[in-house]
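Objective 1.3, modelling of assemblies. Example input:
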Amino acid sequence: MTALVTIRDVDKGYVRGKQRVEVLKGLNLEVETGEFLALMGPSGSGKTTLLNLIGGLDKCDRGEVVVAGQRLDRLSSGQLAKWRARHVGFVFQFYNLLPVLSAERNVEVPLLLTRLSGKQRRQNVRAALELVGLGDRAKHKPAELSGGQQQRVGIARALVSDPTLLICDEPTGDLDRESSESVLQLLELLNRDHGKTVIMVTHDPRAAEHASRLLHVDKGVLSAEPLETAA
Amino acid sequence: MTLFRQIGAVTAMNLRTIPQRMASSCVVVVGIAGVVAVLVSVLGITTSLEETLLSTGRSDRAIVLRGGTNAEVSSGLSVDATLTIIDAPGIARTADGEVAATIDMVTGIDLAKADGSVAAVSLRGMSAEGLSVRPEIELVAGRLYQPGLRELIVGAGVQEEFATIAIGDTVPLRESQWTIVGVFTSGDALESGFLTDVDTLLSTYQRTGGSSVTVVLESEEAFDVFRDALTSNPVLSVDVLREDEYYQRQSEGVGDILDVVTTFVAGIMAVGALFAALNTMYAAVSSRGVEIATLRAIGFGPGGVVASVLFEALLLSVVGALIGAAIAWALFSGTTINMGNLVSSIVFRLQVSVGLVAQGILWACAVGLLGGLLPAIRAARLPVATAIRGL
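Predicted structure (tokens):
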């Protein structure tokens, strides 16, 4: 196994008002290709910040973030956008579907950044929707779908361009238990049968059980056990 | 190619949300429509007036004015001066062998409109050769005035502006009544006034010399000979111009003033529309912050986002411009306008041309681009990591 994600000695902080808040301090992490990693921790612990650094949505203040062989901390905003389009699929807590577009159009959006023809794009979109079990809902707009179905459209959008890495920020945070289970099984399937590396932030211990590894983030520090237990 | 796809995708998303933002989008459209309606209307006045003046006059005719005056109404020539002028070399002869020259006197008549307001209309007295000098004058109704009688013929443009004027009506002039005996057309600015016999008019005003002398040159090239003969004569102090050049200068004066007025009025309105566009596009970007951030997260570049916001601002502006131009066209195109002062006026038909509409659209695009630029930059600079969560 090779490391898909390598984070070395990373610091990240934000300025809130007149105060600087350090979120991640000297953080180190390696995620192997094909791994399903769950990150848990209380609100404000830095797990989403860590996810944003891995997904190339934000840049660290110090240290190295290497994903799929690329030093992300050295890329410009435009270069990061291109890198994200090639390597990462995002699954968001509130789905972040474009409300005016149908399910198939939403799924097609990442493919507009590729050189695929219209026919090829339609084929890929159909395959992605079939994979998430929504082949018959292609023409529906997000408002016409349930929360679980919307999240599955979100997952189809994340995987349609065949990225190496799926970044999932609380993918079941807005779903009931049944829908959550369905979405988590789908992520597990993508990890197990399609070889996708999945990094998921969650508050739900039951969701974390679907991952192959669980890490806890608290006060910007990673540990295998919750901080209070570890102490 | 992918950049165009990016722009197309983001723009399509933006445009599909317009129905949800109808009120604020309408503010931009209405604001721009107002700017363009005013702009096109006032520019229409300027260009229509210029076209009318520029269609007046010929390069093989010359006009002589008193030195230092720039218009016939302020010019005055002595009898001796007019006799010297018509004796100069380079002047053609009429079919009857007479010198092709007319001594004109130009003044104004106050006419009452149907609504009670008063407008000044020019009255031109011409010599007997006047009709030979200006063959474009065509009598279309009634008969020609008779020298020695207080008779006038009226231009078709005046008749259009003052609908009640007809053959047989009388016009007050210097405590006497002058009878309209005919209607003429000329296809130029002369149609905006009355014509009569110059000697009758001079005697009414108790004057002896005319305002100007207009001559037909033997050829266009004869102008220099004619002008040099007059300007080198130490007894005369006159300005000699080709007739088309004279009317071109008249149009420049009026056109310059109207241009200033147009730019000022449309400029103030454009500033108002600019702020409306800014406000609307900022609101549009703000309301779609999560969607824009989602597209940025997926991999859409800042260029596509900027272009799509600008495109939407441009589209709203162009829609506003077309509505404004349509309003201007519906309300004013073909309207007869009388522009004048106390001594003279010109009647012309306002035309809203394709060129003017294009000019209005260009203004609208400028307002749209300026109004959309800052919101577009803000959209491109949205911090993706926070904006994606609606924070």
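The mean pLDDT of chain B is 85.
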